[in-house]
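ok trying again, last paste got cut off:
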Amino acid sequence: MELTDRMKVLEKRSNELVIEKEVLCKARKIDRELNNANGRNNTELYQLIREAVEACPEYANVTKLCEDLKVSVRGYYAYYKN
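nice, full thing came through this time. structure:
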């Protein structure tokens, strides 16, 4: 493998790491907000769940998030269907 090819591979991986870091930071922020969710109305909670799903779709579990926040899964999907 030539030096330029190696540099391209390293640059690509570097870009991937930056994206992974951004997603992780967003997920941590959302996690903090979810932990402070007491007293929020369902619409705000649905929006937090949606942000979590968009930030980390491979890890987010809508059913589990709804259960943790004590909101209806059916209500979540109905809210975003309309």
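cool. The mean pLDDT is 79. Residues 3-35 form the longest helix (33 residues).
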